[in-house]
Specification:
It contains 11 helices and 10 strands. It has 310 residues and is α/β, with parallel strands linked by helices. The longest helix is centred in the first third of the chain and has 16 residues. Helix 1 packs across helix 9 and helix 1 crosses helix 11. Strand 1, helix 1 and strand 2 form a beta-alpha-beta unit. It is globular, with a radius of gyration of 19 Å. The protein has 2 domains: 195 residues, D-Maltodextrin-Binding Protein, domain 2 (3-Layer(aba) Sandwich), CATH 3.40.190.10; 95 residues, D-Maltodextrin-Binding Protein, domain 2 (3-Layer(aba) Sandwich). The strands form 3 sheets. Strands 7-6-8-5-9 form a 5-stranded mixed sheet, with helices on both faces. Keywords: Signal. One of its GO terms (molecular function) is transmembrane transporter activity. It holds the Pfam family OpuAC. This is Glycine/betaine ABC transporter substrate-binding protein.
């Protein structure tokens, strides 16, 4: 998940950790609610959609563009901008207008002391901690949580089924993840504070990307941060460790938008997409891009047409 420099070097001085993402959820979506605003913005000038630097988020960005385009709204997608530490300030600054986000990760980015883990509660809390001028629209059925996985061999060797079990192997296991996971609550910090887990070593790789998955396959790491919609988890038979203490919050896909652009037309289009897009469907789209190497834009457009959303 390498960063690509866009927006005319706007972010050249920013730090660049990868975005941690985030199982189907249930949501009630309507065309006018779900955020802190009431649809008084205007999309007449079009929207610029930004995405993080991994394939699923790119797919989501093009899905947003497709449904908005079908509603007669002009859009432009700026993919691969980088991490949340980059894209959220860009949204605040007006360089982009809309982002596909993940509830739990966004909430912890805004308030690292937040304790909500249930989707509805997090949605309510998000409306109170977002910077002025931004709002979240109703969250989608689709969810993509962070998770921590080990190989079957490692699970058998140490008796691992849950994150709590990692404590039995304190000082013996190597964790691989994106660099920022070393300092995030859903990462080294939370695993130690909530579960008492201490690793032998942390290797800065990527989250659910080719580096961390390759390292897990080779045995260079013992525990990998992967996303629940990653098709490699099932295909490799990796054991996803359960989270009995609810360290990892719900991660429903949620549109994060500048209120000035959030008119009723935008709300309705994104709500319609959110009702149709499930975790299972998102996993299928990820497979087409990650495994079959298809273009995210084409994959998104084909899927929208198949669902009669474009």
């Amino acid at each position: 998940m390498n960063r690509r420099t866009l927006l005319g070097g706007l972010f050249a001085a920013a730090s660049v950790p990868a975005l941690a993402a985030c199982s189907s959820g249930i949501t009630s979506l309507d065309s006018s609610g779900g955020g802190s605003g009431g649809g008084s913005g205007s999309s007449a000038g079009g929207l610029t959609i930004g995405t993080a630097n991994f394939s699923e988020n790119q797919i989501l960005g093009y899905l947003y563009a497709g449904v908005l385009g079908a509603a007669g709204i002009k859009t432009k997608v700026r993919p691969n901008l980088g991490s949340r530490e980059i894209v959220v300030p860009a949204l605040e600054g007006g360089d982009i207008d809309l982002l596909p986000e993940y509830q739990g990760s966004l909430l912890l980015y805004l308030d690292d002391k937040a304790t909500d883990t249930e989707a509805g509660a997090m949605q309510n809390t998000l409306t109170t901690v977002l910077p002025g001028g931004l709002e979240v629209l109703p969250y989608a059925a689709a969810e993509d949580r962070d998770s921590f996985a080990v190989t079957k061999e490692t699970a058998a060797k140490y008796g691992l089924t849950s994150l709590a079990d990692l404590r039995k192997a304190n000082g013996k296991l190597v964790l691989g993840a994106a660099a920022e996971m070393k300092k995030r609550v859903v990462g080294v910090v939370g695993l130690k504070d909530r579960y008492g887990v201490e690793f032998k070593e942390f290797k800065s790789l990527d989250s659910s990307g080719p580096l961390v998955k390759g390292a897990l396959k080779k045995g260079d790491i013992d525990v990998a941060n992967v996303f629940t919609t990653d098709v490699d988890v099932i295909e490799n038979g990796w054991v996803v460790l359960t989270d009995p203490l609810n360290l990892i919050p719900s991660q429903h896909i949620v549109p994060l938008i500048a209120s000035r652009k959030a008119d009723a037309k935008v709300r309705k289009a994104l709500a319609t997409l959110g009702n149709v897009l499930t975790s299972e469907e998102l996993t299928k789209l990820n497979r087409l891009v990650d495994k079959e190497k298809k273009d995210p834009d084409a994959v998104a457009n084909t899927w929208l047409k198949s669902k009669k959303l474009a």
